[in-house]
Every structure is written in C-alpha cells, then in structure tokens.
Amino acid sequence: MGKARSEDPLFGRIVYWWRVLRDTTAFRVSTGIARRVTGRPLVIAIPYLWLIFFFVIPFIIVLKISFAESRIAMPPYSPLWEWVTTSTMQIKLTMSNFGFLFEDALYKNAYLSSVRIAFISTLFCLLIGYPMAYGMARSKPSTRNILLLLIVLPFWTSFLLRVYAWIGLLKNNGVINNILLSLGIIKEPIVMMQTDFAVYLGIVYSYLPFMILPLYSTLEKMDITLLEAAADLGCRPIKAFLKITLPLSIPGIVAGCMLVFIPAVGEYVIPALLGGPDTLMIGRVLWDEFFANRDWPVASAVAIAMLLLLVIPIMLFQYFQGREMRAHR
Amino acid sequence: MSANPRQAQGRGAPWNDPKAQPYVVIDHVTKKFGEFVAVNNVSLKIYQGEIFCLLGGSGCGKTTLLRMLAGFEMASSGSMSIDGQDMSGIPPYNRPVNMMFQSYALFPHMTVEDNIAFGLRQEGRAKADVRKRVDDMLAIVKMSQFARRKPHQLSGGQRQRVALARSLVKRPKLLLLDEPLGALDRKLREHTQFELVNIQEQLGVTFVVVTHDQEEAMTLASRIGVMNHGEIVQVGTPSEIYEFPNSRFVADFIGSVNMFEGRLIEDRPDHVRIASDDLGATIFVDHGISAAPGITVWAAIRPEKIRLARERPSQPDNVVPGVIKEIAYMGDMSIYLVQLETGRIVRVTQPNVDRDSESQFTWDERVFLHWHAESPVIVTQ
After folding, report:
1. CB 3.0 to 4.6 Å from B335: which of A273, A299, B31, B328, for a disulfide?
2. Nearest CB to B93 within list A234, A243, A327
3. Predicted ipTM?
4. DSSP B308-340
C-alpha cells in the first residue's frame, strides 16, 4: 500500500513540498519556539508574570525613589535623571537616604527591635505550636481533622477584626481586667494594652497557625514504627523523642519559623494597634516616614533595607529546604 | 494432633524432650481490639536456638502475637515469659528482645553505622566497644563498605541487611522477624534465606519469624505454627506440617493438595476405607484413624504423590481413570490437570525424568491415576 501511495503524483508532490518547507530556517525556528512555549513553561510563566508586575516592577520603582531627593512637590521626590541639554542626560543618585539610615539611631534601633520581637515571637510560636502539632499528629484520624479545622478556623474572620478583638480583651476596662477585678484577684487594673507584651501576644496569636501547619504535616508523615524500633533497641520514650522525632521534624521547624519570622519582622498592624508609643518596629517607622513625614526617598530606603534584611532568611530557608529535598531523594 | 508413628524424631528436637526448658512460654494469650479478637487463647513453647515460624494469611493474628512478644501490644489475658521472666508490664525498651521490622524502620537521618550503633549507645557502652561491635556486625552482614551511607542510598536488600545487623548487634537471646524477606525479589530472597539461617547458627539466637509465605516458612523454620483466625491450628516441623496436616485448612494452606470428601465405611486398626462420591471410587488407606464409622472425612492427596499410567495398574485399590485436560510444563516437572468421570479435576505433578517427549502424556489422553495406600492424609475437620 505504501508503494502505491508514493507512486501517486499528487501524494509525491505533497511530500516534496513538505520536505522543502520543513528544511527552511523560519519553519524550524517557529516550531522550536512553539515547542518551548507550550506546556510546562506556560504554566510557570503565569506566576512569574504575576511576580514581575506586582513585585519586580514596584520594587524597581521603590529602588528608584530611594536614590532620589525629597522635595515638596508632586511627586514628592526629585527625578532620577534630567536632560540638561538636548544631548546631555544627568543621572543623579542620592546616597544620603541610605547614609541617613546609619546616621539616625532610630532606624538601627527599629530594625534591631523588629528582629528581636520577631525572633522572640517565633520562639514562643515554636514552643506553643510544637506540642499542639505533636498532639494533633498523634491523635485519632477522626479527631485529627476536627483539630486541623479548629487551627484554620480563625482565618475565616478578618485578621484586623481579630487584632481589634484583643484590644477589647486587654484594655484597662476590658474583659480580662474586669473579670480579675470582680473576682477580687487584683485591686487595680493591669496595664496590658500598648505594651510590648500585647505586641508579642498579638503576633504569637496571629501567626501560630503558620507554625503549627508545617510542623503538623512533617510530624504526621513520620513513620511511627521508627519510635517502636527505638524502643525495641532500648531507648526510653523521652530520649526517642530527642533522638528520632525532633531531628526528623527539623524541616517542619525551619518552615514554620520562616513563615512566622519573615512576616513578623515587617509587621505593621499589630504593633500599631496593640503596641505603645515606645514599641519600635520597622513597619511603623516606614509608615511614619511615608505618611507623616512625607519623605518618600528615606521611606523607600527603609523599605529596601528591610527587604534585604528579609531576603537573607528566605535564602537560608531555600538553602535548607533544597538540601533536605536532595537528602531525601 | 495425630500421634503418628512416622512423626519426625529428629536429632536436637527439644520440643520432643519433656525435660527441656522452653525459652519462650506463651500461656493462653488472648488479644482483643475492641470487639475484634486478634489472638485467641494461644499457647506455645519455643526452645532455645529454634527458628520458629508463625505462618498464616493476613489478619490471622501472627503479627499481633509477635508485637506482644516485643512489648508493643499488651495481652488482654494470659501471660508470656521469656527466659523464665514474666513479661507482663515490661515495656519494649526493657525486654531482652530485638525485632526486625517488616518496613525495616531504619532511622533515615542516621548513617548505616549510626543505625547499628543506636542500640549499643542506649546501653551507655564505651565508644571503642561500640565501634568494634558495629564493625564486626557490618562484616557479618557484608555491609562494611556502606557504613557511611544513609538508608535512602541503599538498595532493598542492603537495607534488609542493615536492619538485621541493627537487631542483632545487641546480641539478643530472642530475635523477632516480621516478614523479613517480604520486600525482596525472588533471587535475593533465596540467597538471604540461607544467609539468615547461617547467621542464626553462627550467633545461636532464637528466631521467631512471622510470614505469610509458606515457602519461606518451609526453608527457614525448625518448627512452624500455622495460624488461622487468631488461633494456632497446628504446630510441627515443616515436614510434619506438609505430610501430616491435621485439618483441611492446613492441608490447603501449605502447598497444593487434592481434597476428596467422603464417608468412612470401614474402620480397622490397620486400614480404613473411604467412599468418595467426589472421586467416584473408594480410597484405601493403610493406617487406622480414630473416628466413628459413617462420619464425613476428607482425604488429602498431594499432587506429587499421584502417578499417571496408560495401562490400568495391577493394584486393586486407589486407581481411577481420567482424561488429561491441561498440561503445564515447568522444566523440572509437569503439572497435569486430569478430569475424572465424576467431572472433578485432579492436579497431578510428575517429574520430567526423560528428555524424550514421546513418552510424555498429551492432551485428551486417557490415563489411570493411582497412588500408594500410605499417601492420603485423612482429616476430620
């Protein structure tokens, strides 16, 4: 049958022209592109485009502003480049904004304080979240789902609302103080609002689920027979936890800590609502710089510096995760 | 259990010596999970140096029994003792027992040598001592060159050897093995089976092995305990279990068998006769059984114990005509499925002694099946 076909003059001509077309460079290039654009690259392109539009471009704009000079104008900063004559372009990079961050101790203190508050909050999240995640992972599968739902449940109400609710609980004539006063445990209301305590409480409360969920997923996946094997080899339960469970849950600990620490450093809402005037966090400094001082270049420099501060832990996280992935392959 | 005169009286069979002290005593142990009875009133005596196989299908309670010996499950009633010491209330980490898990349960974050050293370090031994014993153990299981690897860098067979090394390094008197060869391919299994027996003899450990694979049990075990629905159905050496099964279940579970239902029509001390509608003939057995005449019994005949002939053999009994329906050539032997006049299909295996294909039987050939009077096993349940 194949022979009969090739003897057919029309068929022969089609084959000939197909070969000619196939060998042209333009055809090769275009099919090559088509092959590359379809499928996986297309799927990956969507989040990348999202990142370019909503992260990379705004970042470049903020970076540009951070090298400008503050002006009382619209917009409130100097342009980065100017045409002095028709043939001369003047690019002016103002470094003083970044210099200013080092000169004024406020910024340094705000950064350090943010990192300290985020670090301590992360530690508390870990200490509270680990036993919770452990208990969940070791409970019966039916109760496990209910417990998991309870952890996720707060997300169904607005984050702002939940922080506001804490004001109602913590303020001097709030729920907690009223109960303690009426029970006669305290004579004077305890000042809890507008203190660092309230900020820690707010951050730990808000970010606890982000600690619990990755911890739970690593602990739940863990093979229980490993603990039986440890017991079989003469290892007591507490030691088995330290030697087996804890090391195997490190990926969960790292993921949970990063998920809490990174947003906590830049947290603005919680210190603004629950913190006092002396609760110094970089998110509030940024806000003040932008809206109170209207010094956009310095505010941008603060933002860039904060970003660098956060990118380092993210990169460390990625590194650990990558190493972990390779180790389990 | 039938007290058969031909029962193996093998050398070094402590279970036949009334004065021998059992190493493990399981005394009327029952384990319930809620309403479900996993292990039902099991009593067993296991002796030092034995390889005792618990054999049964999935869900028969064999693994639960093993886990109770290890201390992961507590018996609902009954007691267990190991080396004369009562085990009730003793947690796994205080038992003189080690277990090799079905999944091997190697610690994924530790190297091979750290996995093996884990048990020794729990005892607080000196570093040099741990080092030496780990090295010795690695040499025994031939894994010395893989000491620094992590479990995920090993093949299935290598992991199995590490798991074995880890469970043996503390020199337990009793080693529990849960489906030790389950995850290995056939070639590796056969090799490892012999290796296991070698190591067991070398170290003088008592093994209790759980398996669902009758072949594995046959090659490994000194004795087999067949389990069904949480109960021990029969205990005996592999040949006892194979040649003298005490029930239809055991006969069916171990190897393949032709089972004929029949009625006991003649019961003498030296022979019995069974009328079987299934077979369309009477079966003559050259030994007596203790049962009332007229009751329903089953005659179990192994396929390799039935012979095929073209001419009617001269023997008066145990001859049935049939037609060959299927032949499976296995190389060393052939399996024939022969249809009797009653319609019943009988499985017969014959060794292929001659290379000449002329002498072999062929499809639709009329043949006579015959067997020795000692071959059938009569079971009443």
Report:
1. B328
2. A234
3. 0.80
4. EESSPPS-SSSEEEEEEEEEEE-SSEEEEEEEE
